[in-house]
């Protein structure tokens, strides 16, 4: 496909008012870090007018270091290879045929290339003159939480580079998963909260595409004492997370499609424990967790695996029944893996679309971005939803004030339907998802940091201050009268109104 643009999405986000006219922002002097699947650095979107790369570097965490050839990870790290600007320029000079021998970085999915193009592409991007740092994340390690440590290292390196160069940096994360309590309490999200306080950075994360995936159900043991799960055929495995208040004690009975039952006697489990049960042709591995130092919530993790020599777990309707023993709140939430990791027919009956934002977008100090349809001016139903925590009436804070809102996620929304993205090896496609809403906000943040930090109008325009400016400039989306809400946050990005011009 020939070149297509994102003019409509930019106009909906009030971006041309500050790029095509005074103050003529381009993102110059700012770094945009894309932590993703890699990049096709040969594309014109990532080359300047002199034919040189706009990439400040690529850290390929999947590559194998080779000290004899000068292929080493960044200083202080042990995995992967850092390809410098000079190495990438040398590869460009050799062309697509011979160049990859100098910097053999691939983007097999095209996701990272698309994200980088939307945020900072030379023709397509919101901030076309930023320097781009690409961190190709390492492969998930078997029997571990996928990519968590690789992502942490990538964030650490990006933040450190910004400090070393004394330059503002925007970090974009356009992926996530469903594993966690979705309240910002995961180890990764707490790490992001801490990283956001180092140097002049801002971290932007998409809220995910689980809003309409039927992967979440919540309730109380009194109002919804059972939850039903449809398991489609040919599921080789399936996991179910249950998150609850630790002080609530209730037993859980799991009922198979044929009516076989097994009860997990949670009331008799005092410490972390693993239970093994079998129903029909499905083996249940049940981990009964306990609170951890950074969260008071309790996790109960149920892994459903084929029993014996079978290849699939039992299809049909599975039921989870809750029997109160000693209940204070009685609240619970059940989560399935991401929609991409399960068959289309697998999901909860009567699902709860609220609090479906993916991990790590619940990080409190990150800018979490939902998606809306700019053409129809309405919320995109796939967009991961969050929450609005309000103080109870009459409750005041330590200063004696009565805040209207305690916490909101997502923070803001941006166009995320039919967004033009560059593809590896050339051409453009239109794709949808919060993966492409986030880089619109990331590029906008780069423009704001150029205006504030690089040009000296506000040397402290980063972190939570930048988020506050974005929130203040946000405009309501049709149908979202009660702003803020858990769908679009404080509203749609409007960059012109976010800058105190």
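^ structure tokens above, recovered residues below v
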């Amino acid at each position: 496909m020939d070149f297509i643009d994102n003019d409509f999405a930019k106009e909906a986000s009030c971006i041309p008012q500050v790029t095509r006219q005074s103050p003529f922002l381009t993102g110059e002097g700012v770094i945009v870090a894309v932590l993703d699947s890699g990049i096709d650095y040969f594309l014109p979107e990532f080359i300047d007018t002199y034919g040189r790369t706009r990439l400040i570097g690529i850290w390929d965490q999947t590559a194998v270091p080779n000290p004899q050839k000068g292929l080493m990870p960044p200083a202080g790290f042990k995995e992967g290879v850092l390809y410098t600007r000079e190495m990438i320029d040398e590869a460009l000079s050799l062309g697509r045929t011979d160049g990859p021998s100098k910097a053999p970085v691939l983007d097999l999915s095209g996701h990272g290339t698309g994200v980088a193009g939307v945020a900072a592409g030379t023709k397509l991007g919101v901030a076309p003159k930023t320097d781009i740092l690409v961190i190709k994340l390492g492969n998930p390690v078997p029997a571990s939480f996928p990519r968590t440590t690789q992502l942490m290292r990538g964030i650490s390196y990006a933040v450190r580079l910004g400090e070393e160069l004394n330059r503002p940096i925007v970090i974009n994360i356009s992926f996530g998963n469903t594993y966690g309590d979705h309240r910002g309490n995961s180890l990764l999200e707490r790490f992001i909260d801490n990283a956001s306080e180092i140097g002049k950075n801002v971290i932007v994360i998409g809220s995910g595409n689980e809003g309409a995936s039927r992967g979440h159900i919540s309730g109380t043991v009194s109002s919804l004492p059972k939850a039903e799960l449809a398991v489609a055929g040919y599921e080789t495995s399936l996991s179910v997370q249950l998150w609850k208040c630790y002080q609530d004690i209730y037993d859980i009975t799991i009922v198979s499609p044929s009516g076989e039952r097994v009860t997990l006697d949670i009331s008799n489990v005092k410490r972390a424990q693993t239970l093994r049960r079998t129903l029909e042709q499905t083996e249940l591995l049940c981990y009964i967790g306990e609170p951890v130092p950074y969260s008071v919530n309790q996790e109960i993790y149920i892994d459903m695996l084929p029993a014996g020599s079978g290849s699939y777990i039992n299809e049909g309707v599975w039921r989870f029944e809750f029997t109160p023993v000693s209940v204070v709140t009685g609240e619970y939430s059940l989560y399935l893996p991401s929609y991409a990791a399960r068959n289309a027919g697998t999901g909860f009956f009567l699902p709860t679309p609220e609090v479906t934002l993916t991990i790590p977008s619940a990080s409190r100090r990150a800018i979490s971005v939902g998606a809306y349809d700019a053409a129809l001016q309405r919320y995109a139903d796939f967009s991961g939803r969050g929450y609005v925590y309000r103080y109870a009436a009459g409750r005041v804070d330590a200063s004696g004030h009565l805040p209207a809102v305690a916490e909101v996620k997502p923070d803001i929304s941006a166009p995320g339907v039919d967004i033009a993205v560059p593809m590896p090896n050339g051409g453009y496609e239109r794709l949808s998802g919060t993966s492409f809403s986030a880089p619109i906000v990331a590029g906008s943040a780069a423009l704001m940091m150029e205006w504030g930090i690089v040009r000296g109008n506000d040397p402290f325009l980063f972190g939570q201050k930048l988020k506050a400016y974005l929130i203040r400039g946000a405009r309501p989306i049709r149908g979202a009268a009660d702003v803020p809400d858990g769908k679009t946050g404080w509203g749609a990005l409007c960059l012109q109104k976010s800058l105190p011009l």
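The chain has a mean pLDDT of 93.
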